[in-house]
Amino acid sequence: xxxxxxxxxxxxxxxxxxxxxxxxxxxxxxxxxxxxxxxxxxxxxxxxxxxxxxxxxxxxxxxxxxxxxxxxxxxxxxxxxxxxxxxxxxxxxxxxxxxxxxxxxxxxxxxxxxxxxxxxxxxxxxxxxxxxxxxxxxxxxxxxxxxxxxxxxxxxxxxxxxxxxxxxxxxxxxxxxxxxxxxxxxxxxxxxxxxxxxxxxxxxxxxxxxxxxxxxxxxxxxxxxxxxxxxxxxxxxxxxxxxxxxxxxxxxxxxxxxxxxxxxxxxxxxxxxxxxxxxxxxxxxxxxxxxxxxxxxxxxxxxxxxxxxxxxxxxxxxxxxxxxxxxxxxxxxxxxxxxxxxxxxxxxxxxxxxxxxxxxxxxxxxxxxxxxxxxxxxxxxxxxxxxxxxxxxxxxxxxxxxxxxxxxxxxxxxxx
Length: 416
Fold this sequence. Notes:
It contains 15 helices and 16 strands. By secondary structure, the chain is α+β, with helices and mostly antiparallel strands. The chain has two domains: 14-170 and 228-314, 2-Layer Sandwich (BirA Bifunctional Protein, domain 2); 327-414, Anticodon-binding domain (Rossmann fold, 3-Layer(aba) Sandwich), CATH 3.40.50.800.
């Protein structure tokens, strides 16, 4: 039987993996420059964590989570997103102790059972960050600025920043009522999911991609018309700060996020190069989530980048991370192979990227494999070289060669 990968999963290797690694290296540098430190959380969590954090009526909880009972009958879920796990880890490990502001980032796989499509798989990867402890628009602007800096340094400049404020627990109920009343008058035109959302999660009505439902957005009430004075001031402050940071943005009053924990600021970065599913990343403020998990009432903001979708845009723009093979050992008989293994081992201990041809064969065949690996030098040992205590060092780029004493080999390359 030939086994194949599961639908919605992928194998990552070769040039694609090198591109991912280059993205990861640069992303870590930018995040650390902005004061973020990495956190790693488990793939498995109690199902209740996501039900409580994401909302019982969210599409993720209702239809997309990989959930199963363990041998003790506990309901476990493979994480569909990162924020809930990070907040749980922060509280469980008392990471807020003595910290007025906590900045954390994560990078890893997430899982959702949804229809696979271009750049959107059932196992997907997110680079996300959470900043806990600041309520002002300054940290919102800093977060969006961080993302603009990251994309620019990745070589991506053709993107748009969409911005909205969905209000708070004081002003949003009135907007919910107006939104529900509007969509009730169009109930026969709604898809099945929106018919359910009308009674469970009316804000998500604005996020539907079904053409008939999407067309209704143009006549829907605007959340910005329902802002309380504090939300209005916060939103205007954010716009002013983004202008100071020279981050171009557009105001999108129908923009919402797919998870229930968001309040006030929400944003997304989009690129027309991705087609209809144009979102590169998104995020927003979630001031109530820490309290929902039993912690203090702590303001917070975060974002998540879909790595698969971003890497699609990076092809041809970000040079892949190269893993060079500087030296490639070639042995022409069993005795030479033992000595070459020792020689390559000494080079590796000196920090030299070196590999050994374990397949053997003719000199021509082994040189061909050395060139295929991208090696700079081929080190060649045969019976004659072993007897004389030397190695032939062939420069595969300059097509030249010289003999070097085996005993002096590490010193020679260390000096060069």
